[in-house]
TrEMBL record:
Native source species: Halorientalis regularis
Protein known as: glucarate dehydratase
Transmembrane segments: none
Pfam family, one: MR_MLE_C
Region (Disordered): 342-364
InterPro entries the record matches: DgoD-like, Enolase-like_C_sf, Enolase-like_N, Enolase_C-like, Mandelate_racemase_C, Mandelate_racemase_N_dom
CDD domains named in the record: MR_like (cd03316)
Domain Mandelate racemase/muconate lactonizing enzyme C-terminal: 135-240
Classification via SMART domains: MR_MLE
Domain of life: Archaea
Gene3D superfamilies in UniProt: Enolase-like C-terminal domain (3.20.20.120), Enolase-like, N-terminal domain (3.30.390.10)
EC number per UniProt: 4.2.1.40
SUPFAM superfamilies hit by this protein: Enolase C-terminal domain-like, Enolase N-terminal domain-like
Reactions catalysed, as given in the entry: D-glucarate = 5-dehydro-4-deoxy-D-glucarate + H2O
Length: 364
């Protein structure tokens, strides 16, 4: 089998409103923009991958063709070695790597999780918020989430005094598992810069979470490459520390493990590792007594790619973005069918490859 074509489609979807994501400071987001990669083969099989986009899109199809045409999509390692050159100067190659796995699964007639040695297990979801919201509004949101059958919530914070938001939510819902995301690992600085926390601020916040109780993890309170400071923080608090969603490649996760930086490894297959490397990070977590719970906040294809790896590695939680107007329908607008949870659990699609179909009308 050989790759015979590489196409890229810039897709844009109006969300029907806007919210203010903590990872794009000062920028209300009301559109969902995606770069969709379509990899064709001489057997007629086509694979799809995707990466987040913005500001009208970025076209990589021509340079990608130089590296991909004539390659066997089954040779994931060989293709990744070639795409490392693209990674040096252009887009990260993980969206393309996902398309290779879609082809491999379709060729084998099996879903990706099965190729990775897993089963279609049910994974509990946690509602992942995207913006900082006053406590009274967030408490109302949590009530709606619980009514929808979801049993855990991740709150966003950006300032140390946002510990009070977490505290008030805990007082309203004393038995609810909470995760907290400071979003200091990275940011898209379109309008303004995010404010970084000092180590002292991160430590004080973590100790505040100890008082709140039943906080499953504190996510990215420090820059994503500060392995040593993460290790210091992890040593100084009882709250588990999570991160790594946007670190690029498996070597970063080896460093997290080597330095004892994290309790929860969170590589997003669409942003940080692709599917093969994500599976390797999951194995690394298992070998060192850590948890593997990837970031999933990208698009329908990215979500499903992560879901296959989670199912193959028995992840304890699945991040499920829920911040209206960012709903599952908006996340999955490029798919024929929305992938939703049922009573607080989600399972990967059972069809071959990714197990999802692209909405053909968008490609026209």
């Amino acid at each position: 089998m050989q790759i015979t074509g590489v196409d890229q489609h810039h897709l844009e979807h109006q969300a029907g409103g806007s919210f203010e994501p903590t990872w794009i400071p000062g920028y209300p987001q009301g559109t969902h923009e995606v770069e969709l990669f379509e990899i064709e083969t001489d057997t007629g099989l086509t694979g799809y991958g995707a990466m987040p986009s913005f500001a009208g899109g970025m076209d990589f199809s021509e340079p990608l063709s130089y590296f991909l045409l004539g390659e066997d999509p089954h040779d994931v390692e060989g293709v990744l070695r070639k795409l490392d050159s693209i990674n040096l100067v252009g887009p990260r190659p993980w969206g393309v790597e996902i398309a290779l796995w879609d082809i491999i699964g379709k060729d084998a007639g099996k879903p990706i999780y099965e190729l990775l040695g897993g089963s279609a297990s049910e994974i509990p979801v946690y509602a992942s918020t995207g913006e900082v919201m006053p406590a009274e509004e967030r408490i109302e949101y949590v009530g709606d989430v619980i009514d929808a059958g979801v049993g855990a919530v991740k709150l966003r914070v950006t300032e140390p005094d946002h510990i009070e938001i977490v505290r008030e939510v805990r007082e309203a819902y004393p038995d609810l598992p909470l995760m907290v995301d400071a979003n200091k690992g990275w940011a898209v600085r379109v309008m303004e810069h995010e404010r970084q926390w000092s180590f002292r601020e991160a430590l004080e916040f973590a100790r505040g979470l100890e008082d709140v109780g039943d906080v499953r993890w504190l996510e990215e309170p420090l820059p994503r490459h500060d392995y040593e400071q993460y290790a210091r923080l992890r040593e100084a608090t009882d709250v588990p520390i999570a991160g790594g969603e946007f670190n690029d490649g498996i070597h970063h996760f080896r460093e997290f493990v080597k330095q004892g930086s994290l309790d929860v490894l969170q590589p997003d297959a669409a942003l940080a590792t692709g599917i093969k490397r994500a599976d390797e990070v999951a194995a690394m977590a298992r070998q060192h007594g850590l948890e593997y719970v990837p970031h999933t906040w990208t698009n329908g294809i990215g979500f499903v790619a992560n879901l296959h790896v989670m199912a193959a590695n028995d992840s304890p939680w699945c991040e499920f973005p829920m911040e209206p107007p960012w709903t599952p329908d908006v996340r999955d607008f490029l798919l024929d069918e929305t992938v939703d949870h049922e009573d607080g659990v989600v399972t990967p699609p059972e069809g071959p490859g990714l197990g999802v179909e692209i909405d053909d009308s968008l490609l026209e």
